[in-house]
Automatic annotation (TrEMBL):
N-acetyltransferase domain boundaries: 1-147
SUPFAM superfamilies with a match to the protein in the record: Acyl-CoA N-acyltransferases (Nat)
Keyword check for Lipid metabolism: no
Protein name: GNAT family N-acetyltransferase
Presence of the UniProt keyword Acyltransferase in the record: yes
GO molecular function term, any single one: glucosamine 6-phosphate N-acetyltransferase activity
Originating organism: Geotoga petraea
């Protein structure tokens, strides 16, 4: 199933609203993340991704510049009814492609415990066996070094 993915900035507010509707459903309503933690004020500093399936927004993520080589991937979410169809993987592949175009060679993220195997299936590695807590949810730091050919 092909997802049509595009990127935008916070100032493109009509697109941000579509992405935020997904985050609201997934993180705030489903996972009970407090709204003030979900809306952390960093969205204006991010590049946002939105995936449409049959013209309906189903997946989102954002990436944040850390340094010239590194992006941090955050807020990866697929609406519940559309999971396990490859959409999460497609959003992440789009992020890697964009990173490649911008000569970014490393992606880092904090994975929720229940998403570790999802990221491992995409080539990310855990940086520690120790969990830390964000919004009451156990997380682990992961990273993926992007191959030369992607740059
Ligand atoms: C994590 C999430 C984004 C995965 O999206 P998805 O569209 O369901 O995943 P995909 O269908 O693209 O799966 C890609 C691969 O990861 C695997 N996978 C997906 N979710 C998994 C999970 N929770 N545990 C183990 N493996 C998983 C799939 O089996 C698939 O493997 P394959 O390519 O070998 O078949 C989605 O479950 C989600 O939005 N969860 C709630 C929000 C969340 O926890 N986000 C992560 C924050 S760190």
């Amino acid at each position: 199933m092909a997802l049509s993915v595009f990127t935008f900035l916070f100032k493109d507010f009509e697109f941000f609203k579509l992405a935020y509707d997904i985050r609201n459903e997934v993180f705030i309503k489903e996972q009970k993340v407090p709204v003030e933690e979900e809306l952390d004020g960093l969205d204006p500093a991010c590049i946002h991704f939105l995936g449409l399936y049959e013209n309906t927004p189903v997946a989102t993520a954002r990436v944040r510049y850390i340094d010239k080589d590194t992006w941090k991937v955050e807020r990866v979410a697929v609406i519940k009814e559309q999971r396990s169809k490859g959409f999460g993987k497609e959003i992440m592949e789009n992020i890697e492609n964009e990173a490649g175009k911008k000569k970014v060679s490393k992606l880092i993220l904090n994975s929720q415990k229940n998403a570790i195997d999802f990221y491992k299936s995409l080539g990310f590695e855990s940086l520690s066996d120790e969990f830390f807590y964000e919004a009451g949810i156990p997380h682990v730091q992961m990273e993926k070094i992007l191959k030369e050919s992607q740059n």
